[in-house]
């Protein structure tokens, strides 16, 4: 085989690998987009969670199921808000039990993950929200940020 034929085979192999790679990427994007109906292939990896919210009954530390947030866009927005919050490490002692509490859960019951309890205390006129994550982290949400967060959690 002469050098010209070897060079042609080399370029044909490169072209074949490139075409196969693009085809695989296209197929993956198609299935990812079809699976979540949102058109955003990255939300596929975050889909499948809900938020179970409970509301305090009276002044005691008793709660009733309040609502389930199963809209993926709302779940992701709440996650984003919590991820972007400036959490501080400290153990919080409050004068009364939390007004609300919630956990993230997977829709698929076969996925076993330890749920972290988020507890919410409302400030006067709901203009300030204190959120405690687990046992040792808390954050204060003020102003518009707190009202948007509360709207997603409570629906009010």
What does this structure look like?
The structure is a single chain. By secondary structure, the protein is of the alpha+beta class. The chain is 38% helix and 26% strand. The protein has 2 domains: 3-43, no CATH class; 48-154, Sandwich (Immunoglobulin-like). The chain has helices spanning 3-36, 72-84, 143-154; strands at 49-56, 63-69, 88-89, 100-106, 118-122, 128-133, 137-142. The protein has a 7-stranded antiparallel β-sheet. Helix 2 packs antiparallel against helix 3. The protein starts with a helix and ends with a helix. InterPro entries: YhfM-like_dom (IPR058780). Residues 51-133 form the YhfM-like domain. The chain crosses the membrane at residues 12-33. Keywords: Membrane, Transmembrane, Transmembrane helix.
Helix-strand layout with pairing:
Layout lengths: L2 H34 L12 E8 L6 E7 L2 H13 L3 E2 L10 E7 L11 E5 L5 E6 L3 E6 H12 L2
Antiparallel strand pairs: 1-2, 1-4, 3-7, 4-5, 5-6, 6-7
Helix pairs in contact: 2-3
Spatial order of strands in the largest sheet: 2-1-4-5-6-7-3
User: Which structural class should the secondary elements be placed in?
Assistant: alpha+beta
Radius of gyration: 24 Å
CATH T-level fold name of the largest domain? Immunoglobulin-like
Multimer state: single chain
Overview in brief:
This protein has helices at residues 3-36, 72-84, 143-154, and strands at residues 49-56, 63-69, 88-89, 100-106, 118-122, 128-133, 137-142. By secondary structure, the protein is α+β, with helices and mostly antiparallel strands.
């Amino acid at each position: 085989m002469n050098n010209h034929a070897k060079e042609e085979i080399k370029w044909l192999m490169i072209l074949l690998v490139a075409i196969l790679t693009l085809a695989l990427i296209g197929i993956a994007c198609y299935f990812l987009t079809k699976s979540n109906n949102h058109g955003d292939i990255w939300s596929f990896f975050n889909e499948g969670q809900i938020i179970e919210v409970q509301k305090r009954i009276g002044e005691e530390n008793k709660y009733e199921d309040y609502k389930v947030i199963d809209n993926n866009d709302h779940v992701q927005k709440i996650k984003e808000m919590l991820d972007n919050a400036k959490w501080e490490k400290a153990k919080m002692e409050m004068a009364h039990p939390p007004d609300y509490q919630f956990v993230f859960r997977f829709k698929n019951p076969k996925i076993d993950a330890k749920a972290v309890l988020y507890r919410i205390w409302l400030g006067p006129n709901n203009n300030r929200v204190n959120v405690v994550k687990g046992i040792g982290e808390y954050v204060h949400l003020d102003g518009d940020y707190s009202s948007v967060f509360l709207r997603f959690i409570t629906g009010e």
